[in-house]
């Protein structure tokens, strides 16, 4: 067994196969804590008590790919779906716990969450009100910190990242869409789309070019100069989706994006998500309490009382 540390400081054991070029190597971990400690099916490996053999390749851009998975963990071992061969791992969470202090007492909200998402997956997180969906999204989106656990986002160890650096991660890697749109009332639709680019210090010329394209993408070019108060709910949400795409993020996180819309307008917003997934291969995590909307995605994760109950890919 080999012990190795990768650039994110994660140590793991197993056989290492050097295949030449810089940053181009593969790794086969067997059983127990091998690759589970790294970025993959973490909890699944450790908890199943069954052997799992798989190989991972890290390319020069620090992206992790699953090359092979000889023996999977029994489905549902931890409420997790099986790792997929050929996948680029976007998110891995292991044993995430989060609670809030109520007076002297700590109220547990998220309990021992194990979770992973591949690049290009379209996932729904389904659960009743109060089940912890927004709390989960806040942690996924690096807007809140977990009490314990490990979280890797596109190979980056979020649980070891300093608060100051998380702002940058949020801005570059994640696009947010909220139920209540959260547009800035004083700014036009186009300027709202440009806000994340301002934080990313994109030049004015480039901002305008990109925001024009994004307006086109969401079919809102004609409303570019409108203030949010001059837009309908569905239009505001389309602008919010365009804004979420401003810095070409790795993932889109949407918390009840159609919750404030009537069914017809909600349909248009859902169609836009489908389009972003299909045409741009965006990784999308959609939080909803509607089983019907969840059915429109590729994978449904059910959450109840802060725990993942089921995780099914279609
Ligand atoms: N800041 C906080 N302090 C204390 N408790 C909180 C806080 N934020 C959320 N909670 C509690 O955590 C639980 C989960 O809340 P959360 O907002 O994640 O639920 P949700 O699944 O998003 O619900 P909804 O579908 O209604 O949006 C709730 O019981 C809520 O009261
Ligand atoms: Mg919520």
Strand elements, count:
15
Shape: globular
Detail the poorly predicted runs: 1-60, 66-81
User: What's the CATH superfamily of the largest domain, by name?
Assistant: P-loop containing nucleotide triphosphate hydrolases
Task: Offer a concise description of the structure.
This protein is an alpha/beta fold and 314 residues long. Helices cover 27% and strands 32% of the residues. Helix 4 (189-199) packs across helix 5 (204-217), helix 4 runs parallel beside helix 6 and helix 6 (233-244) runs parallel beside helix 7.
Can you give a write-up of this model?
The chain has 314 residues and is an alpha/beta fold. It folds into two domains: 1-87, no CATH class; 88-313, P-loop containing nucleotide triphosphate hydrolases (Rossmann fold), CATH 3.40.50. 27% of the residues lie in helices and 32% in strands. The chain is built from eight helices and 15 strands. A six-stranded mixed beta sheet has the order 11-12-13-8-14-15. A five-stranded antiparallel beta sheet has the order 1-2-3-4-5, with no helix packed on it. It is globular, with a radius of gyration of 20 Å. Mean pLDDT is 77; it is low at 1-60 and 66-81. The chain binds adenosine-5'-triphosphate and magnesium ion. The site of adenosine-5'-triphosphate has 11 residues, from helix 2. Magnesium ion (MG) binds next to helix 2.
């Amino acid at each position: 067994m080999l012990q190795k540390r990768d650039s994110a400081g994660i140590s793991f054991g197993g056989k290492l196969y050097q295949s030449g070029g810089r940053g181009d190597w593969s790794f086969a971990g067997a059983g127990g804590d091998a690759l589970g400690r790294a970025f993959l099916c973490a909890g699944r490996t450790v908890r199943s008590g069954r052997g799992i053999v798989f190989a991972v390749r890290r390319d020069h851009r620090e992206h992790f790919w699953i090359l092979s998975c000889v023996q999977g963990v029994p489905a549902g071992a931890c409420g997790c779906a099986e790792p997929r061969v050929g996948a680029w791992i976007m998110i891995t969470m292991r044993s995430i716990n989060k609670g809030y202090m109520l007076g002297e007492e700590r109220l547990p909200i998220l309990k021992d969450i194990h979770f992973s998402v591949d690049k290009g997956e379209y996932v729904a997180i389904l659960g009743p009100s109060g089940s912890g969906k927004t709390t989960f999204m806040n942690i996924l989106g690096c807007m809140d910190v977990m009490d314990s656990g490990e979280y890797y986002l596109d190979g980056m160890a979020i649980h070891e990242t300093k608060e100051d650096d998380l702002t940058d991660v949020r801005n570059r890697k994640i696009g947010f869409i909220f139920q209540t749109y959260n547009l800035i009332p004083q700014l036009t639709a186009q300027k709202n789309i440009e806000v994340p680019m301002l934080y990313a210090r994109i030049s004015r010329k480039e901002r305008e070019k990109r925001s024009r394209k994004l307006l086109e993408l969401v079919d809102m070019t004609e409303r570019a100069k409108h203030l949010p108060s001059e837009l309908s709910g569905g239009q505001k949400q389309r602008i919010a989706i365009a804004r979420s795409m401003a810095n070409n993020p790795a993932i889109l996180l949407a918390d009840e994006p159609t919750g404030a819309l009537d069914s017809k307008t909600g349909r248009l917003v859902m169609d836009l998500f489908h389009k972003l997934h299909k045409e741009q291969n965006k990784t999308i995590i959609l939080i909803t309490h509607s089983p019907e909307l969840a059915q429109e995605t590729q994978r449904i994760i059910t959450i109840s009382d802060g725990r993942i109950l089921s995780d099914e890919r279609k």
